C-alpha cells in the first residue's frame, strides 16, 4: 500500500481528482450539446435539485465544465432521449446508454423489496397508464391538487403518488422537465429502441460503478463507489471487484495522512501532473465533485455542509453557500442569490479560507469569474455584501466593481 506523506503527493492526488472531474483544464469535454453529453457520460450522473436561489444544480454542474452552457440544453438532452432521469444516490440525470443499470432498483421497487412504504394503489395506477396511453404525456401540473400547496408523500394527491410509483418501478419515464416540471410518458414511448434493456447482474452493476467512479474521480473509496445506494449485495460485489483488481495489479491502494484508504488505477503516479490555471470556479453544492463530504474533507481538507436545511440562527456561511475552487484548492464559499427581476446577483456572504498571502489573487480571480457566472444567472449586475475576513472586502469590492 502506498502511503501519502508529502505535500507533492497530496497535490498530485488533488489534481488527479480535479482532472478526472473535468474541472481542469477548462472546456475538457468540449462545447455545446456534444460537450454536455460527453460530460454526463463521463461523470455518470448529474444531480437534480429544486432549489432555485441560483440556477438549478444540474445546470450549474454542466456550466462548471461546458463553456457558455445554456440552461435549456439539459431539457433538450432529456427530450432527445440522450439522457434519462432516475435515482443515483439522489434524483439525477444519467446517460441513456447506461439505462439498464436502473433496472435492478426498478425491479426491487416493483416487488416491494425496496422503498416498501411507497403507496401501491393499483386501481389508480392502471387509470393513469390508460390515460397516458390514450391521451399522451401527463405533467405534474395535471396531477396537482389545485389551491393548496403541500409537500411530502403523505400530502400528495393519490394520482400524483401513483404516477411517481409507476415512474420509480419503470412503467413511466420522465420525458420532459420544461420549467422544472416533470412530464410522464410510457417507457415504451420514451426509451430509444437501440438501448440495451437486459437485466444486469449485481456484479455487472458493481463493475460498472467502479469503472465509472474511477473515471470521474480518479481515486475512490469502497464506500464512495456505492455512495448512498441502499443495496447490501452491491457493496459486497464492489469490495469483491476491488480485491480482484488489487490482486491482478490493475488497482493500487493509497493511504492518505488521515488514514483513509483510496483505490486508483496502478498507473496513476506514472501520469504527467495535471496543470491548473488562475481561473476560479464557483461550484454547486450538488456538484459531483462536492457531494461526497467525507471525501472532500479527507482529500481537500474542506469541511462543507449545505446550510439551507439548517435553522437560520445556526448558519455559519449562509443559506446556499457555493464552494470556491482556485487552482487545486477549495479556498472559500459564497452565499449567492439571484434577484432575477432586478437582474442582480447578490453575493450575500463571502467567506475566504485561503492563506492571507493568497487573498489578493483569490479576490481578483473571483471578481474575474463573476461576469460569466452572473450571465448564467440571467443577471448583469453583482452586489457584494458581507466579506470575511473583513480586510478582504477592501480588495474584493473594488475588484468586482472593475467588471460591472
What does the model show?
The structure is a single chain. With 404 residues, this protein is α+β, with helices and mostly antiparallel strands. It folds into 2 domains: 1-110 and 192-280, no CATH class; 305-401, no CATH class. The protein has helices at 7-20, 32-43, 57-63, 72-80, 103-111, 122-135, 140-143, 158-168, 187-190, 202-217, 222-225, 232-248, 293-300, 359-376, 393-401, and strands spanning 2-3, 46-47, 83-87, 91-95, 138-139, 172-176, 183-186, 219-220, 251-255, 261-265, 280-282, 321-326, 329-339, 344-352, 381-388. The strands form 4 sheets. Strands 11-12-13-14-15 form a 5-stranded mixed beta sheet, with helices on one face. Strands 1-9-10-8 form a 4-stranded mixed beta sheet. The chain has a 3-stranded antiparallel beta sheet with strand order 2-4-3. Helix 1 (7-20) crosses helix 10 (202-217), helix 6 (122-135) packs across helix 8 (158-168) and helix 10 crosses helix 12 (232-248). The chain is globular, with a radius of gyration of 22 Å.
Low-confidence residue ranges: 146-155
Helix and strand composition category: alpha+beta
Radius of gyration: 22 Å
Query: How many structural domains?
Result: 2
Percent range of helical residues:
25-40%
Proportion of beta-strand residues: 15-25%
H and E string = EHHEHHEEHHEHHEEHHEHHEEEHEEEHEH
Instruction: Please count the beta strands (DSSP E, at least 2 residues each).
Output: 15
- Spatial shape: globular
Quick check: average pLDDT? 94
Largest sheet: 5 strands, mixed
Output the number of helix runs.
Answer: 15
What is the first-to-last residue Cα distance?
52 Å
Strand order of the largest sheet: 11-12-13-14-15
Amino acid at each position: 500500500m502506498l502511503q501519502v506523506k508529502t505535500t507533492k503527493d497530496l497535490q498530485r492526488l488533488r489534481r488527479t481528482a480535479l482532472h478526472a472531474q473535468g474541472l481542469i483544464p477548462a472546456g475538457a469535454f468540449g462545447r455545446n450539446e456534444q460537450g454536455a453529453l460527453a460530460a454526463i457520460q463521463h461523470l455518470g450522473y448529474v444531480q437534480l435539485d429544486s432549489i432555485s436561489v441560483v440556477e438549478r444544480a444540474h445546470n450549474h454542474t454542466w456550466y462548471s465544465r461546458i463553456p457558455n452552457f445554456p440552461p435549456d440544453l439539459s431539457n433538450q438532452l432529456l427530450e432527445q432521449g440522450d439522457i434519462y432521469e432516475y435515482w443515483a444516490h439522489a434524483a439525477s440525470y444519467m446517460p441513456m446508454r447506461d439505462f439498464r443499470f436502473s433496472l435492478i432498483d426498478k425491479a426491487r421497487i416493483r416487488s416491494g423489496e425496496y422503498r416498501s412504504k411507497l403507496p401501491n394503489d393499483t386501481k389508480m395506477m392502471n387509470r393513469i397508464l390508460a390515460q397516458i396511453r390514450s391521451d399522451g404525456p401527463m405533467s405534474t401540473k395535471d396531477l396537482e391538487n389545485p389551491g393548496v400547496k403541500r409537500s411530502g408523500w403523505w400530502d400528495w394527491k393519490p394520482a400524483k403518488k401513483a404516477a411517481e410509483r409507476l415512474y420509480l418501478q419503470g412503467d413511466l419515464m420522465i420525458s420532459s422537465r420544461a420549467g422544472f416540471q416533470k412530464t410522464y410518458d410510457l417507457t415504451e414511448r420514451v426509451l430509444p429502441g437501440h438501448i440495451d434493456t437486459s437485466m444486469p447482474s449485481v456484479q455487472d452493476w458493481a463493475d460498472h460503478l467502479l469503472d465509472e467512479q474511477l473515471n470521474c474521480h480518479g481515486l475512490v473509496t469502497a464506500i464512495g463507489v456505492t455512495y448512498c445506494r441502499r443495496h447490501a449485495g452491491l457493496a459486497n460485489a464492489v469490495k469483491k471487484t476491488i480485491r480482484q483488481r488489487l490482486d491482478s495489479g490493475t488497482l493500487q491502494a493509497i493511504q492518505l495522512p488521515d488514514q483513509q484508504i483510496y483505490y486508483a488505477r496502478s498507473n496513476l503516479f506514472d501520469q504527467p501532473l495535471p496543470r491548473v490555471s488562475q481561473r476560479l470556479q464557483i461550484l454547486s453544492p450538488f456538484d459531483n465533485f462536492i457531494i461526497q463530504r467525507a471525501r472532500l474533507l479527507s482529500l481537500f481538507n474542506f469541511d462543507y455542509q449545505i446550510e439551507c436545511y439548517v435553522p437560520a440562527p445556526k448558519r455559519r456561511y449562509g443559506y446556499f453557500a457555493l464552494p470556491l475552487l482556485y487552482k487545486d484548492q477549495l479556498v472559500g464559499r459564497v452565499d449567492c442569490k439571484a434577484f432575477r427581476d432586478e437582474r442582480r446577483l447578490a453575493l450575500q456572504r463571502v467567506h475566504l479560507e485561503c492563506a492571507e498571502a493568497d487573498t489578493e489573487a483569490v479576490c481578483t480571480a473571483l471578481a474575474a469569474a463573476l461576469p460569466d457566472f452572473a450571465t448564467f444567472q440571467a443577471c448583469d449586475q453583482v452586489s457584494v455584501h458581507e466579506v470575511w475576513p473583513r480586510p478582504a472586502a477592501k480588495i474584493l469590492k473594488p475588484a468586482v466593481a472593475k467588471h460591472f
